Structure formats: C-alpha cells, structure tokens
Amino acid sequence: MTLLARPRASCNLAVMTSETSTSPAPAVLLVEDDGELRTEMAAYLASNGYVVHEAGDAAAARHALAEHSVQAIVLDVNLPGEDGLSLCRALSDQPGPPILMLSALGEAVDRILGLELGADDYVVKPITPRELLARVRALLRRRSTQAVAAPHNSYRFAGFRLDLAARQLLAPNGMALLLTPGELSILTALLDRPQAVVPREDLMRLLRGEGAEALGRSVDLHISRLRRKIQDQTDDEIIRTYRGVGYTLNARVVVE
C-alpha cells in the first residue's frame, strides 16, 4: 500500500490550519528525494494541521533547519549525496527535534543501525498516510509530555547533572554528553523512579507513543547507548537490567 494521492501544494512550504486555531501549528521537516512522494506526504500532513518544510537532499535539509524552527523531522534513508543515516547521526549529536526515519530497507540490522545513530523511530516503506500522521503525532506527544511532566530544570545523580532544557548530561568531570530525545525520555523516566524497577513496557510506550507499532529492540538499543555514555565516565553501575522485567537507576537522585 502506498501513500494516497492528495492535492499538490502550490509552494515548498505547505500550511493548512484552522482559522480558529489559537496556537501555532507544529512544523515538520520532510526530507525525501522522491518529489512526487514528498508532495503527497506534505499535503497529507498539511491537511491535518501541520506546517511542512520540504527538502530533497541533506544539503537542503540543513538549509531548512537553519531557516526554520521545526518540532519533528521525517527523514528518508536513501538520499542522493549524503545519505539519511549520515545526516541523522550529525543531527542527533546536538539538541534538536525528534527524527522519524523512513526506509525501503526492512532488515533488522538496518533498523538497529538507524536507532543506533540517533533516530527516535524507524518505519519501513511503503507507509500509509494515516500511519505517517500517527508516527509524527507520537513523536510530538512524547516531547510535549516531557515538557509538562518536568517543571523542574535538572537532576543530579552519582556526580552527573541532567540539564533538561539543554538535553545535556554533564559528567562528574564536567564533560557534556548530548542525549537523543529517546535517551532523554528513558533517563528521565528512570530518574523519576530511582532505585525502582521501571518496566520495559513503560519505556516502550514512552519511545513509541500510543497506537504506534513498537520495534522490539528499541528500548534495549536506547538503554545500551545511554549506559555506554554514562559508564564511559564512571566505574559505578548506574543503570541495571532486570532481564525480562525492566531497568533501574541505581543512585540517589536530587531534583532541582
């Protein structure tokens, strides 16, 4: 099943919002080299109240990000020139919007690689308009939930300090460790329940949102990356795994 045909947008920036809306429409950057497919996806998202910025390659995507503030990125893997995986890795190394990767490659290793490089979700083409919309909504809902659930500014634990606004983890030696949105979601959930076992299913819901299909190993991959970043800076076992149950943050936590 492929994307349904929709009326083509008359310009690169598609905006369709209700006249009665009182808040800015969320903006999405859509990076896809297939022009026809990109137009169809952009039109469907726009018809559901999103501002859509389009890009056909990595260079255009970088330019769009420099010019516009976006709340989510839909990124195709197979781009001309610099591919989507390379762009994903570069974007995830700095604070920024969550990334939904699209690819015709459905092998488990391809999905794992995408998540390892910092993607927050990975979908195999073809994707229906409804699923695309659901995935984007899930990413934005998770980001909004983080903002509402964390009125405080930071956490301190085992010599580390997590700055929520900067999405940055400061190591005991002062080194700044940047976190992807998925890593931030998981670490915050563990910090909110220190020394308690947080069920794997709870973390999976954080990563994928309600109604979206969960990739089985996504939680494990995010935990692995997060644990590696932390363990490179300390000898203590901060994140413990309870196989088949969940994960625990083994440290005293101070909320600021």
Got a strand count? Answer: 14
CATH homologous superfamily identity of the largest domain: Response regulator
Shape designation? elongated
CATH architecture of the largest domain: 3-Layer(aba) Sandwich
Mean pLDDT: 80
Helix content percent band = 25-40%
Spatially, the strands of the biggest sheet line up as 1-3-2-4-5-6
CATH class of the largest domain: Alpha Beta
Describe this structure in words.
The structure is a single chain. The model is unreliable at 1-21 and 209-215 (pLDDT under 50). The strands form 3 sheets. The protein has a 6-stranded mixed beta sheet, with helices on both faces. Strands 10-9-8-7-14 form a 5-stranded antiparallel beta sheet, with no helix packed on it. Strands 11-13-12 form a 3-stranded antiparallel beta sheet. The chain has 2 domains: 13-147, Rossmann fold (3-Layer(aba) Sandwich); 150-255, Arc Repressor Mutant, subunit A (Orthogonal Bundle), CATH 1.10.10.10. It is built from 8 helices and 14 strands. The chain has 256 residues and is α/β, with parallel strands linked by helices. Helix 6 (181-192) crosses helix 8.
